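Action item from last meeting closed. Structure (90 res):
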């Protein structure tokens, strides 16, 4: 299978998918993620609609999430309050 994502671990139910924006090309990864966090987007964005369909917590419009969060960080996603808490930095 060829994807536009770099090689390495793929998202799983214990992993949050972090993206600047959400496009249809990452749908396969969204289905395997435990949560979705994007820098841009709104209530009708691709990430918001897909997360509702999949029943996943989603934070959209986080603005700087891709700059602050790094691969391997342990985070808690509270979608009801719109908060991503860094539990441990790796």
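Sequence:
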């Amino acid at each position: 299978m060829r994807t536009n994502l770099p090689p390495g671990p793929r998202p799983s139910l214990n992993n949050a998918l972090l993206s600047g924006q959400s496009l249809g090309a990452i749908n396969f990864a969204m289905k395997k993620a435990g949560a979705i966090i994007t820098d841009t987007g709104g209530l009708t964005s691709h990430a918001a609609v897909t997360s509702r369909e999949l029943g996943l917590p989603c934070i959209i419009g986080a603005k700087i999430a891709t700059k602050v969060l790094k691969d391997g960080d342990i985070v808690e996603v509270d979608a009801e309050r719109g908060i991503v808490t860094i539990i441990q930095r790796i």
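Note appended to the action item: The domain at 16-88 is CATH 3.50.30.10 (Glucose Oxidase; domain 1).
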